[in-house]
């Protein structure tokens, strides 16, 4: 009876094909097996579809319903290779990926016939050029990181590899990235997964990222260990130490690596036991307030032998960042650097709600951090790094103009070693061997071939940045300012980034007179001895509204 229902027509055809083809195969020759075997297999599948209870579509449309799941499985590939627009950045456009591939492979990265972008569309940006461009002989732009308390400052490139842990990335990916950093003389951030043997093998400069799990510097209970820290921090290869407070892709969210994934290599790098769950709490245990964070920074600087120590975080509640700055003022201890991670940052796996809706985007976050340091007179003592979807020389120019001293890139360097944005990082089935611990999959990533591509991408991106600076008449990225970048607001309105993101005056916040709402509301809420606010933001906004009404009352009465 089921065969009489139209939606079962395909099942009926497979039954008829099976019924007819097997006698033909017996009587006419084995050549008919080409029909008999597929028809039989599909008929068996159709019968199973009818009796299974988990998939309604397959139950109602036996055989045919399986196409829905097949197309759903390959939908990302179909969209990426056949339907995706070249400039549709989700999360990175085909044009962005192609640019990295070309620069990494030393292929032509020029484009004919004009821009593909809508120059009159909202959000279009450009750098204003000079009638008197200059010549820049050396594009290896560097800055010195390390304040007065540092005895081992680091001369840092303005483009470096952002934090990606061994465990999230394969051994071969780590080897290729670090060897590329060595070849290009720039830095490689370890990510919070610790310093592995693969980080050490090539000898590239490392920024040791220390998260709340204290991997590589923990005792048996998971607490910070001075002895373990000193052992790694004093390695000549380690140039800076970065305390990770949060990350842009999942700020405020801890993590756990299941014991089944904790291999001997990963356990060795992290200082944990193989086969046991590896916990990364949402909060640090080595400090509990902004002031104790400053003392922790000073301790790490001392234990490392005077190397630069800084913090990395994604901006959330502004008063918490203000509290850290107030602690700097109160203790006279400053981090050597701050890395601002934008909410658009990537990760191997994160809850969708965190990826899409938690964390301040890079531009607003970077401007807040830069302005706060300027407004408290601390900007000269603290260098600022930034990370969040940085691919091209223009991405760098805009980020540096908004207040960063250097840029970090993660996914851009992943593209350089072969990532195709398959977005399978969380499945351990990365098709190119970049984000997997499967030894058979990662062997596809050939380190001697990919390491030079990492260096090529770095060098060619800095050359592109130098060309932009040359056209703008700027000698070094440190001279970039928001007024150098223009942004279209609508088809008839353009403004400079200096208008969108105004600059505070040096020491302005110390006067107690606040020109901007964010500081007027949140700066008084911050306290150096706690991350908690002194009062509720709603109360602050209500008070500000009442003051505004009171100030406007005389003018209203006069009218």
Q: Major β-sheet, in short?
A: 8 strands, parallel
Question: Could you estimate the helical fraction of the residues in percent?
Answer: 40-55%
Computed over alpha carbons, the radius of gyration is: 28 Å
E-strand count: 15
Mean of pLDDT: 89
Give the name of the CATH superfamily of the largest domain: Aldolase class I
What's the structural domain tally?
2
Structural class: alpha/beta
Beta content comes to 5-15%
Report how far the terminal alpha carbons are from each other. Answer: 85 Å
Q: For the record, what CATH class of the largest domain applies? A: Alpha Beta
Q: How would the global form be characterised? A: globular
Domain Glutamate synthase: 158-474
GO molecular function, one term: glutamate synthase activity
Organism: Pigmentiphaga aceris
Transmembrane segments: 31-51
Please render the helix and strand layout as text.
Blueprint: H1 9-28, H2 33-51, H3 56-60, H4 66-73, H5 75-83, H6 94-104, E1 125-127, E2 142-145, E3 154-157, E4 159-161, H7 171-184, E5 187-189, H8 197-202, E6 205-210, H9 226-233, E7 238-244, E8 255-257, H10 264-270, E9 278-280, H11 290-303, E10 309-313, H12 318-331, E11 337-341, H13 352-357, H14 362-375, E12 383-387, H15 393-401, E13 406-409, H16 411-416, H17 439-442, H18 447-472, E14 485-490, E15 493-496, H19 497-500, H20 517-522, H21 537-558
Parallel strand pairs: 4-13, 5-6, 6-7, 7-10, 10-11, 11-12, 12-13
Antiparallel strand pairs: 1-14, 2-3, 8-9, 14-15
Helix pairs in contact: 1-2, 6-18, 7-18, 11-12, 12-14, 15-18
């Amino acid at each position: 009876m089921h065969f009489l229902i139209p939606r079962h027509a395909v099942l009926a055809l497979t039954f008829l094909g099976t019924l007819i083809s097997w006698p033909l195969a017996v009587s006419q020759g084995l050549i008919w097996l080409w029909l008999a075997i597929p028809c039989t297999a599909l008929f068996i599948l159709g019968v199973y579809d009818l009796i299974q209870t988990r998939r309604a579509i397959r139950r109602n449309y036996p055989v045919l319903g399986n196409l829905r799941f097949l197309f759903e499985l390959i939908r990302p590939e179909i969209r990426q290779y056949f339907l995706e627009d070249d400039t549709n950045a989700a999360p990175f456009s085909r044009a962005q990926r192609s640019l990295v591939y070309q620069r990494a492979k030393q292929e032509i990265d020029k484009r004919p016939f004009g821009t593909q972008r809508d120059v009159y569309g909202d959000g279009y940006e450009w750098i204003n050029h000079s009638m008197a461009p200059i010549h820049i002989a050396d594009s290896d732009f560097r800055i010195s990181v390390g304040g007065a308390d540092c005895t081992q400052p680091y001369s840092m490139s303005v483009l470096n590899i952002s934090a990606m842990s061994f465990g999230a990335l394969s051994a071969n990916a780590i080897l290729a990235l670090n060897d590329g950093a060595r070849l290009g003389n720039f830095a490689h951030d370890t990510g919070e997964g610790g310093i592995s043997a693969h980080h050490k093998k090539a000898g590239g400069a490392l920024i040791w990222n220390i998260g709340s799990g204290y991997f590589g510097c923990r005792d048996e209970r998971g607490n910070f260990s001075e002895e373990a820290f000193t052992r790694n921090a004093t390695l000549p290869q380690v140039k800076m130490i970065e305390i990770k407070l949060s990350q842009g892709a999942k700020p405020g969210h801890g993590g756990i690596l299941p014991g089944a994934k904790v291999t001997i290599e990963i356990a060795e790098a992290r200082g944990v036991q193989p086969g046991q769950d590896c916990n990364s709490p949402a909060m640090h245990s080595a400090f509990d307030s902004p002031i104790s964070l400053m003392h922790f920074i000073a301790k790490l600087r001392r234990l490392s032998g005077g190397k630069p120590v800084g913090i990395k975080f994604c901006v959330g509640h502004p008063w918490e960042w203000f509290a850290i700055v107030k602690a700097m003022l109160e203790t006279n201890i400053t981090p050597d650097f701050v890395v601002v991670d934008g909410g658009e940052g990537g990760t191997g796996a994160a809850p969708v709600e965190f990826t899409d809706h938690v964390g301040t985007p890079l531009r607003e976050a970077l401007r807040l951090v830069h302005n706060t340091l300027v407004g408290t007179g601390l900007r000269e003592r603290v260098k600022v790094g930034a990370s969040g979807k940085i691919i091209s020389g223009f991405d760098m120019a805009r980020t540096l103009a908004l207040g960063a001293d250097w840029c970090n890139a993660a996914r851009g360097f992943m593209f350089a070693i072969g990532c195709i944005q398959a977005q399978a990082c969380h499945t351990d089935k990365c098709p190119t061997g970049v984000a997997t611990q499967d030894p058979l999959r990662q062997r596809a990533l050939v380190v001697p071939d990919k390491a030079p591509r990492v260096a090529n991408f770095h060098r060619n991106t800095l050359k592109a940045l130098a060309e932009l600076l040359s056209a703008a008449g700027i000698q070094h990225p440190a001279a970039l300012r928001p007024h150098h970048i223009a942004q279209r607001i609508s088809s008839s309105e353009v403004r400079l980034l200096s208008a969108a993101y105004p600059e505070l005056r040096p020491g302005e916040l110390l006067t107690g007179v606040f020109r901007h709402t964010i500081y007027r509301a949140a700066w008084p809420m911050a306290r150096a001895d706690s991350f908690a606010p002194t009062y509720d933001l709603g109360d602050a906004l209500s008070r500000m509204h009442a003051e505004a009404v009171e100030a406007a009352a005389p003018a209203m009465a006069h009218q």
